[in-house]
Write a structure and sequence with these properties.
heterodimer, A: mainly alpha, about 0% strand, rod-shaped, B: mainly alpha
Chain lengths: ~100, ~170
């Protein structure tokens, strides 16, 4: 409105119109379903930095978990004993050693 | 356009579109139809909106404006879309509330003047945004606004302190 006519501007603003009625949202977007439907069809927006950080954390955790698991299984079941050069002794000499704790 | 984007756009712009459509058509039911059709267009042809050419609000208002013009043409096919009309017919203001008088005065404006004044005054669009929404030249928008104000001053003279032609007195 022209700045030199505030009177007309004020008068025009006496005609107020409210926003869209709630029924319009239902017409355009459909009826809201039960809350649990969100668990199957819902979306959430994640900011890119948060998404990248979360993905990196997941990758690191996965790598850490897999490496830890591999090391454990190596120490437990992955070691084999080679008996190729094994020779039985000819004479077994048993030698008793008495320790101090035996008193 | 994804479903969440569409929902977000609807919730942000539905009120602006509804108010504009209501003030243009004078009917709540018609305004609801216009807003619904407007978002239907956006849903079906989201590629029609180019962010580099302006805000989504102006784009949606442009769609709403075209739908309203189409409705007006369908309802009154014999009535020309008069842009040069400078004098609006008087109406009786006796017994009406001030808001009702203002409403009738705005409704009495020719279509192109009305959309210009509604977008400028009630929705605070800039001249450039109005030109984009109404697909008009800047000079044409200025001219329509000027004529709309003249008409409104004339029709609303009984409510304004300034002296002028008084309509509505018997």
């Amino acid at each position: 409105m022209e700045p030199n006519d505030p009177q007309l501007r004020n008068l025009l603003h006496e005609w107020e119109v409210l926003g869209a009625p709630p029924s319009l949202e239902e017409r355009v977007l459909g009826k809201p379903g039960p809350w649990w439907r969100f668990l199957f069809t819902g979306y959430i927006r994640v900011p890119v930095p948060v998404g990248i950080a979360t993905a990196l954390a997941l990758v690191l955790l996965t790598v850490f978990f897999l490496r830890g698991r591999g090391a454990t299984s190596d120490s437990q079941a992955g070691v084999t004993v080679n008996l190729k050069d094994f020779r039985p002794v000819n004479e077994v000499k048993i030698r008793m050693i008495r320790g101090n704790y035996a008193n | 356009m994804t479903d969440p984007d569409f929902r977000d756009a609807f919730r942000r712009h539905k009120d602006v579109l509804y108010r504009f459509a209501y003030r243009m058509t004078g009917s709540g039911a018609a305004a609801e139809d216009v807003v619904q059709d407007c978002f239907l267009v956006l849903w079906r042809r989201p590629e029609a909106y180019h962010p580099e050419r302006g805000a989504l609000r102006a784009f949606l208002l442009g769609i709403a404006r075209n739908l309203i013009l189409k409705r007006a043409r369908d309802e009154r096919s014999y009535d020309p879309l008069e842009d040069e009309c400078s004098v609006c017919p008087p109406f009786d203001v006796a017994g009406l509330a001030r808001a009702e008088i203002v409403s009738r005065a705005v409704q009495a404006l020719p279509q192109l003047q009305r959309e210009a004044i509604v977008l400028a005054e009630y929705e605070d669009l800039t001249l450039e945004e109005i030109a984009r929404a109404t697909d008009a030249e800047l000079a044409a928008v200025k001219s329509r606004l000027h004529r709309a104000r003249e008409n409104l001053r004339r029709m609303l003279a009984p409510l304004l302190e300034t002296k002028g032609t008084v309509y509505g007195t018997k």
